[in-house]
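Hey team,

Filing this mostly as a record. A colleague (T.K.) asked me to run one chain through the structure pipeline before their review meeting, and I want the input and output archived in the tracker in case anyone asks later how it was produced. No errors, nothing strange. Just documentation.

Input sequence:
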Amino acid sequence: SLVPSTGLCSPDMVNRVIKRTRAG
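Output structure:
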């Protein structure tokens, strides 16, 4: 996934990534 290093620090972004990974 193309997520910036700054986005990884944001809990909101992490939640979105986790949801995407679970959905995928």
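Quick notes for T.K.: The mean pLDDT is 72. Residues 1 and 21 are 9 Å apart (CA to CA).
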